[in-house]
Design goal:
The chain is of the alpha/beta class and 285 residues long. 29% of the residues lie in helices and 28% in strands. Helix 4 runs antiparallel to helix 5. The longest helix is centred in the middle third of the chain and has 16 residues.
Length: 285
């Protein structure tokens, strides 16, 4: 690949994007390097999901440039781009009663030849993705019969089967139980350690504090801060972004950081909140 570890694999320069009259991404610049797991966090409406869409090419910026492997993203054909970048969106529904295995196979489409036949490498990638997401017992079930968490794991397996060096994941743990979320974040960390670039949007700051290497905090469409999580997850920055009093301490249990929040109410009382609470139903951006 035409990159080194000193060259960002994805880079945003001055990105702007609006939904109608509302500017949801405002002059955002960010460099993302291989071998790292980044978590993009911020309150609802901060623009996080839109940033993933812009980085993946799903949306076009009104202003600014996205670069992939040192080249302008638009200079790639769709097929080549799909071999480099995979996007796992939020809350994706399946319109057909594919089996789980068939749905995961869809991730191999960018790699198939003219006749669309899967070869040994494709079957191997599908099998590994199913195994990674612990979907073997469900492999022959129709996706339309699955629970929300099971369907989420199918979307993630399909993304991993695409076998791209760059993975963009929007709230990947939102429908998973605790053990599944921990396993997923550990898997994403392993992919980063093996050289991939992983970018995750997450409202679960507890998971981010444990597993992320780099953090980027957004509010009102703007990037507030980005860097190693130890430098970004500070009480001052968290309060600025989330409008809640924050405490940060080493977590001896996980080896990461432990976060807690409280937001004063009128009259001096405080309400304690879970870092992942307050997530709106559907796409939260």
């Amino acid at each position: 690949m035409p990159s080194t570890d000193k060259t960002p694999w994805l880079q945003a320069d001055g990105l702007c994007f609006s939904h109608g009259p509302r500017r949801v991404v405002d002059d955002l610049s960010l460099a993302l390097f291989p071998g790292r797991h980044y978590v993009l966090a911020g309150p609802n409406g901060a623009g996080k999901s839109t940033v993933l869409d812009l980085l993946s090419g799903l949306r076009k910026p009104e202003r600014g440039i996205v670069s992939l492997m040192g080249r302008v993203l638009d200079s790639y054909g769709a097929g080549k781009q799909a071999k480099l970048v995979a996007l796992a969106p939020q809350n994706q529904a399946f319109g057909f009663a594919f089996t789980v295995r068939e749905a995961v196979r869809l991730g191999r489409r960018p790699h198939l030849g003219r006749w669309g036949r899967l070869g040994p490498d494709d079957h191997r990638a599908v099998g590994e993705a199913i195994e990674r997401m612990h979907l073997e017992p469900l492999a022959d079930k129709p996706v339309t019969t699955l629970s929300g968490g099971e369907a989420q794991r199918v979307v993630l397996a399909r993304t991993m089967a695409q076998a791209t060096p760059i993975l963009l994941l929007d709230e990947p743990s939102s429908n998973l139980d605790v053990a599944q979320a921990l396993d997923l974040m550990a898997t994403l960390g392993e992919l980063a350690q093996n050289g991939s670039l992983v970018v995750t949007v997450s409202h679960d700051l507890g998971l981010a504090a444990t597993f992320a290497q780099e953090m980027a905090l957004m509010r009102d469409g703007r990037l507030v801060a980005a860097g190693p999580k130890e430098e970004i997850l500070t009480p001052a920055l968290l309060e600025k972004v989330f409008a809640a009093e924050a405490a940060v301490r080493p977590d001896d249990f996980t080896g990461g950081l432990a976060l807690s929040f409280r937001r004063p109410r009128a009259g001096g009382r405080a309400v304690f909140t879970d870092p992942s609470a307050g997530k709106a139903a559907g796409r939260s951006d």
